[in-house]
Structures are given as structure tokens and as C-alpha cells.
């Protein structure tokens, strides 16, 4: 008989999707410019001072092409800009525009409300324990068993 118990990566994916769907629905209800889940993820991993497309792709776990497409959509929407990287003449940094900063703050406030709603559903103690477990350094993955 096959187990119906789902593994942690599946549960993490569902949890992330819950927050993502809540965020995107709240932004849409507020009349914000629509963004894709990939664009929302890109916003979440972007450094305040700017980040290269290669680094964004690495953080997101996607190809450079996927990260580039997300960047271009957000540049066209007025949320991001590309500027020369002072550390490398060959690279450009992606950073938020003034409108992008406003949208980032709005998204942060929505995510805080979603976390509060989650705490109402599963308890503040459970959310705090979940946060503590996820903030604890896990170290490198163990080597494969021989």
C-alpha cells in the first residue's frame, strides 16, 4: 500500500503557494499592477542595492532566461531598473524604482497580514515555532549514502 504522507518539500511548496496566492489576490484586489508568481519571487530575492540577473536566477532556482524575462516584465511595469554595476563594467544591477519600493512595502504589509491570518488558524505558537525552525541554520545537505 502506498503512503499518503507527503514529504516536507511538498509541504513547503504548498505553504509557499498559500502565501503567494494570498499575496497576488490581495495585490489584485488593491488594484495593483498584476505580476506573475515568478516576478513576485524575483522581487523577494532582490537586494536593496541591486542584484545581477545571474544571481537572481541562482537565488530563484531558475534559468538566466527565466530571470531575464521576469526582470524585463518588471522593468516594463516600472517596478525595476537596470543600472551599471560599479564592481564590473560588464554587468548590470537590477534594482527597484521608487514605484517598485512602494510595491515592495505594500507586499510586505500583505505578507504580515497573511502571517497573522495563519496564526489565527493554526495558533501563534505554531507559527512562531515554524519560523524558529526555518530560521535555524541547517548546514549543508548531508552527502549521499554509499
UniProtKB/TrEMBL annotation:
UniProt entry keywords in alphabetical sequence: DNA-binding
Source organism superkingdom: Bacteria
CDD domains: HTH_ARSR (cd00090)
GO molecular function per UniProt: DNA binding; DNA-binding transcription factor activity
Gene Ontology biological-process entries: response to stress
Name the UniProt record assigns to this protein: DNA-binding MarR family transcriptional regulator
Cross-referenced InterPro entries: ArsR-like_HTH, HTH_MarR-typ, MarR/SlyA-like, WH-like_DNA-bd_sf, WH_DNA-bd_sf
Lineage, opening ranks: Bacteria, Bacillati, Actinomycetota, Actinomycetes, Kitasatosporales
Domain HTH marR-type: 28-127
